[in-house]
Each structure stands twice: as C-alpha cells, then as structure tokens.
Automatic annotation (TrEMBL):
Protein name: anthranilate synthase
Superkingdom per UniProt: Bacteria
Coiled coil: none
InterPro entries assigned to the protein according to its UniProt record, in alphabetical order: ADC_synthase (IPR005801), Anth_synth_I-like (IPR019999), Chorismate_C (IPR015890), Class_I_gatase-like (IPR029062), GATASE (IPR017926)
Keyword Lyase on entry: yes
Glutamine amidotransferase domain residues: 442-620
Amino acid sequence: MTRPSDPLAAVAAGLDPGPFALVRREGADHVDLFAGPVRSADRLADLPVPEGAPGPRTLALVPFRQITERGFDCVDDGLPLEYLEVERHRRIPLAEVLDALPDAPVRTRDAAFDIADDEYAAIVERVLADEIGHGEGANFVIHRTLRATVEGDPLATALAALRRLLLRERGAYWTFLVHTGTRILVGASPERHVSVADGLVEMNPISGTFRHRGETVDRDALLRFLHDPKEVEELYMVLDEELKMMAVVAEHGGQVVGPYLKEMAHLAHTEYLLAGRCSRDVREVLRETMFAPTVTGSPMENACRVIARHERTGRRYYAGVLALLGRDEQGRQTLDAPILIRTAEFSPEGSLRVPVGATLVRHSTTAGEVAETHAKAAGVLAALGLGPEAPHPGVEPAVRHADDPEVRAALAARNTPLARFWLEQREPGAIALRGLAGRRALIVDGEDTFTGMLAHQLGALGLAVTRRDWPDPGPLDGYDLVVVGPGPGDPRDVAAPKMAALRALLAELLASGRPTLAVCLGHQLLAGLLGLPLHRRDAPYQGLPQDVPVFGVTRRVGFYASFTARADADRVAGPYGPVELSRDPGDGAVHALRGAGFAGVQFHPESVLSQDGTAVLADLLGHLLDRPALSAHGAADRG
C-alpha cells in the first residue's frame, strides 16, 4: 500500500523529514505530496518553470512584502520569497493520509491577539473616517494576528492540525501543510487567487461573511445576509477590483460567472468566478495580480499605502499566496495559487501566528468588523484547539444551502443591476461603432487600474487604446482622444504632485482643443479648472450604484468617490466656453459635464456596477469625436 512514508514516517521516528508539502485541492479524493529542496529567489520572474515532463515543478511561498516588486508600499518584514523545487510528487488517497497523520490533541499557551478588540475597533473607525471618508479608496483590509506558543513538537502539532482541517473543514480551495525547515504553514484557504490552465486564466473573488459557528444554519438569517446591502456591495467592490486585474492579464478582459455561495464549517461566503483567455508567462500573471483586493483593498496601489499607515507590523505570509507552477501535457505553463488566509504559521521554536483581517467599507461598523476577524479565524483556531470545533460531518453529505431555490434566486438577483458587458461573452467587433475605425485613444492612469477595464470597453467600441501612468503620459500627438482617468486622493489639494500634473495635462488639452474625456478624479479636476467648486461628500459614494440623469437620460451607473463638484444651474459659462451639466436635483452634485471638445463623468462607466456604462461611453464618443449614428448592433442600448 502506497503511504506518504518519507516525510511522515520520519516525523513519527523523530527524524528530520526535509522540506515537503501536503496539498488537498477542493473536492479531491487524494492528497498531493511534494518534496525537494527549498531555495530562494529575489523576484517572481526568477521562479523556475523548467521544460520537460508535465506536472508540478515549483511550489512558491510568496510573502506579502513581494508587493514591493510592483513599487507598492508595505511594512517590510524582510521575509524571503522561497520555493520548494519539486523533485518528488506522489498522489496519495485521502484516507491513507488521514491514517498516517498524528491524531493527538493540540496544546498551546498564552494565546492572544496582538491587537485587542477595542484597539482594533479604533483602527477600523480611523480607516472609515480618515481613508474611505477622504477619498483614499472604496475598501481596505486591516489585519490582526493571534499569537500563541505551541507545547510540543511544532511539526507534529501542525500535522495534527492538518488532520483536523481535512476532517472538519469543508469548502476550502486548498487544505495544506508546507514545511520548509525554517517555517511551517498549515491552513484551509477558501479562495483561489489566480490559476492558469489550458490557456484560461481564472480568478475567484470572495467576500461577504455569514457566521454560523458550525451550528445548524438559520435559513432566514442566511437569506437576510444574501440581501444585506453591505454584504452585496462588498462583493461588488472586490469583483470590480479583480476585473481590473483581469483586464491586464486576460486578452479581452474577464467574463463574470456566478455568484455562488461558498459554504464552510464555521461560516459561508459569496463568490464570483472570473475567466479569460491568456497567453502570458504565468510568473507575469502572478506579478500583475499581486495581491487580491479581498485581503488588501481598492484601488490596489493606494490600499497598500493605507495598510502601511495603519498596520504596525509586517504581514509576513498573510495575504500572499502559495503558487504551484508547472507544465501540462502540451508543454504549456500552469499556475494554481490560493491566497494565504485561514493559515497558521509555526516557527521551529514553537511560536504560532494566525493572522486574519476584515474588509472595511462605508457600511462597516466597528463591532461587526471585530466579530468578522474572530469568525474568519474560527476554522483554523478550532484545528489548533483554540476554539470550538464544527460538528463532525459524519457519513452523510453536508446540507448544501446553495441548492435552496430561494438562495439561488437571491444570488441570481445580484446580477440584475450589473453591466452586461462583463457578464456575457463578447465577440470581437460585436458592439463596435461606425466611424471609430482607425481612431486612437490615450488613457492616462491616475493610480487606479479601472483604466484597464476602460481600455477594454473603448476597444470594444472600436478605438485603438494606449494606457500610460500619470507621471509620464508621453506625447499627445497622434491621439484622437485623451482620457484622464480615475485615482485616489483629494482633488482640492492642487499642490500634490499627482493633482498638479493632471491639472496641467487637462489645462493643456483644453487649451489645444484636443478631444478630452475625464473620469472620476479626472472629472473632479476638470470641474475645478472650469470654475466649479469641489466638496467632500458627507457620506462617501464608494461602490455605490445610482440612477442619475446624464444629459437628459436616466442612467444606472456606479460611483467610487468621496468628492464631487457642485453647481446651481444646468448651464454655466466657463473659461473654455459654455458647459452643460447633469446635476443631482437634491444637492447639485455634478454627475457629468460637457462642452466643446471635452466631457467628464463623476461615475465609472467601466465599472461592473454601471449597467448603462457602455451606452454612456457611446454617447460621449459621439459628442467628442463627431461620430455618425450608432451601429445596428445597438451599443447605445442598456449596456
């Protein structure tokens, strides 16, 4: 009988087993054993994916500090990027692994969070007021860590915890243990970050947490959770953020599938699946998607700044990924990378760390987010003997609440207000507009990769699109349209380098008469140049879909903004000629504006929240580029 004798027998005999990993993927009836030497790399690009026989080649432990490869901020704890070079790979039946793993109680002492509940609540309050309230982003994840000391051998303890997770946890994407010799990671991560197989790249954003602590699920409470605006909008926001990533790594952006209910032993989540065709090197895919917004926030670059401002310690492996790289039968690269959450880290000396975070959005309450950190840690803490275990699943299959007709209906209803552009397969040229062939657009990114989604939309409408970052937009000659894009920050701070640079760019565009479209932050700066006063909203419009008037037509669009321009009339005289405004009838907030050769929108037409986003863009292109009537494909219809 085949058994995982090399590492597990060595542990049982008190010998050094050498580096190894045990991985059970979702739904598998076996566990993969990987063994080989552990090495270090400086960059993701240095991870080896050697050619040769098909199969897994490299298992990388990617710490959060690797985000510095993208130039993003972090509290740098210096953890190395390590990888296990897979020299031996065996598949072992799950039952045999369970027999071989130690069935012993896990004992720890001095367990406590490094940040107490009241202190964490105070951090939540500061982030809501100072960051989301001041336009720094839509959502942010702040972590805390439970620390303890293991009594007994750390590796044997970790293996016992793995056994409990394999028996008790359900719904995990990966249940795993990785032993490098200098650290041990054991966990049950619910979330695939990114995978590449058969030329298809997939991401799996998960958000929204229904807590049931392993008890009988209250159906009415579950349905209330599925209809809760805070939980719904939280998932929408991470969906938008991962669509931004897919816009970079997938050839035509990502298609949205779902949502689904992910049921686990102590809680349930809601999730989407994103898929798109991809021909890029898997290491580039991994780099461009560092790291999931579900464990960082959005927009990504500024989320990292916010995290660094409010977290006093480095994240180590929390919010990083395990990444299994290899080759398929055709020699193509493969990638499978779960997020490192619901994971415990052991040191050889016996220290134990269980990091966990909550997603903070405009609807958040301090008590709710404190409770969420406890709920998310429950599965791993139960496996470590630090919390109540979920009921044993027994021999009967677990009840699937996802099969309940009302649950399915509640999930399906979430897609009703969303943009069909991202929910349906798009044939090239299907919504292209007449008169745009051969025309070029430049998008200037203000530190929000919504611009990647915007590029796909404008490309689908028929433009050839180039995207550049705000510090170096390059020459403007040769472009029929310049789009000054979104980004975080206070548009009233005209001395800030980004604001000054984008204002100068807009002033140049207005003076030259080059057709200009401004989105969100770009719109606010354009409004300021036109003499409209800017205000910070009393309540931020972050991840908020609204029906608003846009030049005489009611449009369903998504907002990510804490600031707005305001006006008292629908037409004003500006320094570049008359300006037509679409305003909120209540407070005068300017949702859109247009004049001779320029237009701006406060909302994000590219967002999955913008049901009418494609139609708005089609209309604006008609205004800016003197385009003939729409094509017969009906792109100006509800998009």
